[in-house]
Specification:
There is one protein chain. The chain is α+β, with helices and mostly antiparallel strands. 43% of the residues lie in helices and 16% in strands. Helix 3 packs across helix 5. The N and C termini lie far apart (37 Å).
Length: 237
Amino acid sequence: MESQLSKFDVNFERFTAVDGKSLDSRFIYKAKGQHKLIKHFPSLNFGEIGLIKSYFDLFEIISKQKEDYAIIFEDDVKIEHSFFDEIHDILKSITTNDFVDISGKKGFSLIIENKGLRLFAVPPRGTTGQILGKHAATKLHTKLYKYEAPIDILLQEVNIHNVRIYNTAKTYVTHCDDLVGGTTIQNKKLIKFKKIIREVKRPFWQFSSLITYKVLRVMNNYKYYKENLPHMNEADR
């Protein structure tokens, strides 16, 4: 990341992520107790808890900064050079109350597409790169504080944190974790027997989550956008 950003002549600040395994045992116990199975299967591991806390801390820092926006890159991504040529156009299309995922991924149920930005009822999962407005960070810091699910799932709950999450139609960042030693989020040391049991249970969780939590999330998010986007008429959908 240092090499890429230096080539792009971009000033940056490195934020050291939280190592979940280094957290106090009482903190881990409380975080695991907040996990909601209907939102995410299985329970959160140390890496996921560390990543959630990292973003919670970042939201607070950005909410107090003097700049209107912050750009967040994970440390294992490749950045397209065109991003820095086109970022000013992106900023002209949003406000400090907005969040923009720059991965180019598609979410579920497109609501609006305008000037290279798309708004989905449920934004896609992932945290490779984003633009975060200062006031959006304040909302996220205030309303997202429980360790109920991984951070990208929490961000999908637009009706809870009340931050518009846009996605760029163009892909500006891609994962390249294989080049930096792999991911630290996934649990690679899980006993084989436990892995088998987990995968047997997964389809049952997927079905129950689909007919309850996921359907309700789509409905609530869509309701939020309809109430908060006056221009969401038939021509925009």
